[in-house]
């Protein structure tokens, strides 16, 4: 039942870090709209297979504890949700 009612997708607001060795391996700040309850937020370590398919490797809410050691700070604003 949970899968049927979970229709909202995670939207990338900001690309925070990019792995220096693999440019399709990123840490992103993402938000998901849950209707009247507002938004759920997460920092997700994402590995992009293509532009539309990706795998979430880890989720962290506060501290930075992602796989690998070579990360480049980018803070690129994507704003897929269209928020102002």
Summary keywords:
single chain; 84 residues; mainly beta
Explain what you see:
The chain has 84 residues and is mainly β. It is 5% helix and 50% strand. It has one helix and five strands; from the N terminus they run αβββββ. The chain has one helix spanning 2-5, and strands at 11-19, 25-33, 39-48, 54-60, 71-77. It has a five-stranded antiparallel β-sheet, with no helix packed on it. A hairpin with a 5-residue loop joins β1 and β2 (25-33). The model has no long low-confidence stretch (mean pLDDT 82).
Short summary of the structure?
The protein is mainly beta and about 80 residues long. The chain has one helix at about 1-5; strands at about 10-20, 25-35, 40-50, 55-60, 70-75.
Unreliable residue stretches? none
Query: How far apart, in Å, are the first and last alpha carbons?
Result: 33 Å
The oligomeric status of these chains comes to: single chain
Overall shape: globular
Largest sheet: 5 strands, antiparallel
Q: If you average the pLDDT, what whole number results? A: 82
Largest sheet, spatial ordering of strands: 4-3-2-1-5
How many E-type strands? 5
Structural class: mainly beta
Order of helices and strands: HEEEEE
Helix content: under 10%
Helix count equals: 1
Radius of gyration: 13 Å
Beta-strand residue percentage: over 45%
């Amino acid at each position: 039942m949970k899968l049927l009612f979970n229709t909202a997708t995670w939207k990338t607001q900001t690309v925070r870090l990019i792995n220096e060795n693999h440019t399709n391996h990123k840490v992103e700040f993402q938000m998901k709209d849950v209707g009247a309850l507002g938004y759920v937020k997460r920092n997700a370590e994402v590995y992009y297979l293509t532009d539309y398919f990706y795998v979430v490797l880890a989720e962290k809410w506060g501290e930075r504890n992602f796989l690998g050691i070579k990360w480049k700070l980018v803070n690129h604003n994507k704003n897929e949700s269209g928020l102002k």
